[in-house]
Specification:
Elements (H helix, E strand, L loop, with lengths): L1 H10 L11 H6 L3 E2 L4 E7 L7 H8 L9 E2 L6 E2 L8 H7 L5 H8 L15 H12 L1 H10 L10 H10 L2 H8 L5 H12 L2 E12 L1 H15 L4 H18 L3 E12 L3 H8 L2 E2 L8 E2 L1 H6 L4 E13 L12 H23 L7 E6 L2 E3 L12 E8 L2 E10 L19 E4 L10 E4 L2
Parallel strand pairs: 2-3, 2-4, 2-5
Antiparallel strand pairs: 1-13, 5-6, 6-9, 7-8, 10-11, 10-15, 11-14, 12-13, 12-15, 13-14
Length: about 425
């Protein structure tokens, strides 16, 4: 059954180490700028499917990822109907209709064709939305808390720098030994790691695409004759019976990153002034509004989960609405995990909660199954150094997925030893 359903779904993807450290480890150390990433999530409204209200309500139960700072600029739910591409815009971009979308739609009735959605143009509609609504500029305004009169402050930076500081940095702050240049450097790293993820949900009765697939199989069977044709058509019917059961929840996500570099920062800093309204910091708001900021498209991922009520084990106490909610939230987690694993720049760090044995607060929600390798990172002065590698213990993976029952363990355990590691160090998945 699993194999047959799989066939169906496949068709539907600041410093070096201390001199006392081990020399070999120091030579292998990975030294990069450390920054905690900031994230804003926007859901693309989609009401064109059965159970849309239930699925969208379930989305609201999604918990914001804890390993990112929430950079909320509003626009939490958007409708792209006003950002559809004109024929001229399609021609300029060289866009052609998805052949898969055409093929599936032609095999099912006009009453259900719209349910099989073609998302091939959504990225271009998002680009249009981003440009016309100046999403990138809103992200910058949020960082500097820029008001309509031009006043601004550094409160957002100050709060997030605290979250990104190592224990050493915190001690240096208390001793007034952390230079302003270092604080400025941390600020630029933070703003340079600002992301927006757009999500789009769908909840499809498997009978609809399964019927489309059966019709394709019938067409191939009809090219045969006699007994072979009969056998082929029966095989198509058998696959349909299995593939048509239940629903599939689909989540597609588009990842963007705020463009920020030395030149953009230099141009922006020219606008800053210490002379302003009532002795407050202020910016030339007209000059700011005339500046162009952009989002860089990083990539797109999609996740699909089968929802077959009659086959759900251990779900006897859940209603169908609760199963829809559970599947929807978990599938959003699933697509975020794909983004994090596919795109290095979006990969989060997790702080250790123990070192003997190694433990950290992540688990099945983050896609762990056991055996994954993580690098241990020591952070000093905004830089991090790799000091070793540990492996997820298959027998002690925390089930922290949405709706999971209370666990005996509430963190994931790792195999490995490292005498230099401390609980305030971080781990990151090795791709």
């Amino acid at each position: 059954k699993t194999k047959q359903r799989g066939i169906f779904l496949a068709i539907i993807y600041f410093m070096a180490f201390l001199l006392t450290n081990n020399v070999a480890n120091a030579q292998e150390a990975k030294k990069e700028g450390y920054q905690r990433s900031s994230l804003h999530i926007i859901n693309i409204e989609n009401l064109k499917f059965d159970n849309a209200a239930k699925v969208n309500d379930a989305y609201l139960k999604y918990e914001f990822p804890k390993n990112y700072d929430q950079h909320d600029i509003g626009m939490n739910v958007i409708n792209l109907d006003n950002f559809k591409l004109s024929d001229e815009e399609k021609a300029a971009l060289g866009i052609k209709e998805s052949e898969l979308g055409k093929g599936l739609s032609s095999m099912i009735s006009s009453a259900t064709a719209g349910i099989i959605e073609n998302n091939s143009q959504v990225k271009y509609e998002l680009d249009k939305f981003i440009k016309e609504t100046k999403v990138a500029k809103e992200l910058v305004k949020k960082w500097y808390s820029i008001k309509d009169d031009g006043t601004f402050d550094f409160s957002v930076f100050n709060e997030r720098i605290k979250l990104s500081m190592s224990e050493e940095d915190k001690q240096r702050v208390q001793q007034a030994a952390l230079a302003q240049t270092e604080i400025d450097k941390m600020s630029q790293k933070l703003i340079n790691n600002t992301f927006v993820v757009f999500t789009k949900l769908n909840f499809v009765s498997n009978a609809i695409p399964a019927e489309a697939i059966r019709q394709v199989a019938y067409a191939q069977a009809d090219k045969l004759s006699g007994m072979l044709q009969t056998i082929a058509r029966k095989a198509a019917d058998k696959i349909y019976e299995k593939a048509s059961e239940g629903y599939s929840v689909w989540t597609t996500a588009w990842l963007y990153k705020l463009e920020w570099n030395d030149q953009i920062a230099a141009n922006f800093n020219k606008l800053l002034s210490s002379k302003g309204i009532n002795s407050s910091l202020s910016i030339d708001i007209n000059a700011f509004n005339a500046m162009n900021f952009n989002l860089e498209f990083i990539g797109q991922e999609k996740a699909t989960s089968l929802v077959t009520f009659s086959l759900k084990k251990g779900e006897g106490d859940r209603t169908e609405d609760e199963i829809i909610e559970l599947s929807t939230v978990r599938n959003v987690d699933k697509v975020f995990t794909k983004l994090q694993r596919e795109y290095e720049v979006f990969k989060p760090l997790y702080q250790l909660t123990g070192v003997d044995p190694f433990t950290a607060k992540l688990g099945m929600k983050e896609g762990l199954e056991g055996g994954e390798k993580f690098e241990i990172l020591e952070i000093r002065g905004g830089e991090y150094n790799k000091i070793g590698t540990i492996e997820v213990d298959k027998s002690k993976v925390w089930d922290n997925r949405y709706g999971a029952p209370k666990q005996e363990i509430e963190q994931t355990y790792f195999k490995g030893k490292n005498k230099d590691a401390r609980e305030w160090f971080y781990v990151r998945l090795v791709k």
